[in-house]
Amino acid sequence: xxxxxxxxxPFFNEFVVRYTGGRTVDGVNQALQQAGILGGxxxxxxxxxxxxxxxxxxxxxxxxxxxxxxxxxxxxx
Length: 77
Known about the structure:
Layout: E1 3-5, E2 14-19, H1 25-34, E3 41-42, E4 53-57, H2 64-75
Antiparallel strand pairs: 1-2, 2-4, 3-4
């Protein structure tokens, strides 16, 4: 519930999400890093108006179990 898409348009591979509820990109990425996962690219340096937004990428080379690991870590935050 604290992750929302920034853009409602279709995308290919890359997508932008915003963290709400007091979560920050740095905080989320630190938690993911502790689990050995590289998080999203913080967009604030280039697009400050997007707030706590991050650019994520997922291609066909990412396995379902890898995505599940990310989701499991995010659910603990």
